[in-house]
Each structure stands twice: as structure tokens, then as C-alpha cells.
Design brief:
Elements: H1 10-18, E1 53-57, H2 60-69, H3 73-84, H4 90-94, H5 106-128, E2 133-137, H6 138-143, H7 145-155, H8 181-199
Parallel strand pairs: 1-2
């Protein structure tokens, strides 16, 4: 892997390079964070593309905490409109024919965005297969990093260094405990089913020791 930055905006640089907007001469292997692909994820299915993808899932409480406490409204609303709104019940969607911030609570926007984004992985696995796509759970990875991380490097055919594991910090695993009981119940009711279904895509060798 090599540094592909062409400006100070690393993630934007990746999008410009992938879209062919910025002239770029390939040199080595590249690792792009494609978090923001959203509704354009079908572009992964291009017949001439050759790549390995690692899709990281995570328990909804931690994800929703980050989305509601660390994301600005623009980012949350953008993901909700691109991937989450379609997951709502038809009756609710009809009331959102014109987007008005605040009609749907911040937690609900985050939950439906989580659901919509997670749904992508099932079609990705169906179209790409396990030879191209590896699904890993974030909590499993950071809690059992010395065993799982080398296997991810084996999947992408790159040499592994034990120092890489030092960069993974398990400190954020329990950050979602700050939700109230009602908020926690709402998040789990909406998001836990899709999370459990996605966990089934994680192969046994990429699960933390003792995880079911």
C-alpha cells in the first residue's frame, strides 16, 4: 500500500481518484475508505474491477452513539436520505415527501441510516463472494486483534507486522453505555435484527475467540 493523497483532504482525494476526475498514475496497491459510496455501491460490481474489500460491521449501539454524538447534521442527514429513508414504513415515508430536519428524531435517522447501510453488505456478498469480500466485526477485531488482524492481511495478500495490532485500541467498545434505557431500547429494537443477520456473514476464522 502506498500514500495516494494529492491534497490535504485524504478521503476526498480517494473519491476523485476512483471517479477518474484527478489524473493519477497507479503505483503499488491502494487502500480506499469508501464509507461514503452510499447509494452508488453498485459501482463495485463493474466487470473490469479487481480488488479485495473488507467490510466492517459493528454493534448498533456503538455506531448510533458515534452518529448522534460525533457527526454533524449534514453527514447524518446525507446518509439517512441516501440509505436510511427507504427502510422506513411507507406511511412514515409519505410524510417526508419534502425533507424537513427534525421530522424524524436524530436517533431514528441514525438507526434507519444504519439499517440501510448495513443492507448493502448482503448484496455485496452475493455478487462478489467471499474470495473478494471479507466481513469482520469491529468489536471482535479489536478484542482479538493479534489473531484476526493477521488473517485479514492474509486475505489481502500483504505481509503482516505485529506492530500493526498496536494501532487498534479497544477503548471505544463500551462507549455506548451513555444512552438512556429508552434510547437503548429503541436502538436495539430497530437495529439489532439487521446486525445479527450481518454477523452471520463473518466467517469463523474472523470471529473473536469464544464468539458465537
Amino acid at each position: 500500500m502506498v500514500n495516494y493523497y494529492v491534497s490535504k483532504h485524504g478521503e476526498l482525494d480517494a473519491a476523485l481518484i476512483l471517479a477518474g476526475i484527478v489524473p493519477h498514475e497507479p503505483n503499488g496497491r491502494y487502500c480506499f475508505q469508501t464509507t461514503y459510496v452510499n447509494e452508488c455501491y453498485h459501482e463495485y460490481f463493474g466487470p473490469d474491477l479487481r480488488f479485495k474489500m473488507i467490510w466492517v460491521i459493528r454493534n448498533p449501539l456503538s455506531v448510533i452513539y458515534s452518529m448522534t454524538h460525533n457527526w454533524k447534521d449534514f453527514a447524518l442527514n446525507d446518509l439517512f436520505l441516501a440509505s436510511g429513508r427507504k427502510c422506513m414504513e411507507d406511511g412514515i415515508k409519505k410524510t417526508l415527501s419534502a425533507w424537513i430536519p427534525g421530522v424524524v428524531s436524530r436517533i431514528d435517522r441514525a438507526c434507519y441510516a444504519y439499517i440501510g447501510k448495513t443492507m448493502h453488505v448482503f448484496e455485496l456478498m452475493e455478487k462478489l463472494g467471499p474470495e473478494t469480500l471479507a466481513v469482520v466485526d469491529y468489536d471482535h477485531l479489536v478484542l482479538d486483534k493479534s489473531r484476526i488482524l493477521p488473517r485479514l492481511y492474509q486475505f489481502i495478500n500483504l505481509p503482516y507486522n505485529e506492530k500493526y495490532a498496536d494501532l487498534l485500541n479497544p477503548g471505544s467498545v463500551s462507549k455506548a453505555q451513555q444512552f438512556s434505557a429508552d434510547e437503548k431500547g429503541r436502538i436495539e429494537a430497530l437495529c439489532q435484527p439487521i446486525y445479527q443477520k450481518a454477523l452471520e456473514l463473518v466467517p469463523a476464522h474472523l470471529r473473536a475467540t469464544g464468539a458465537v
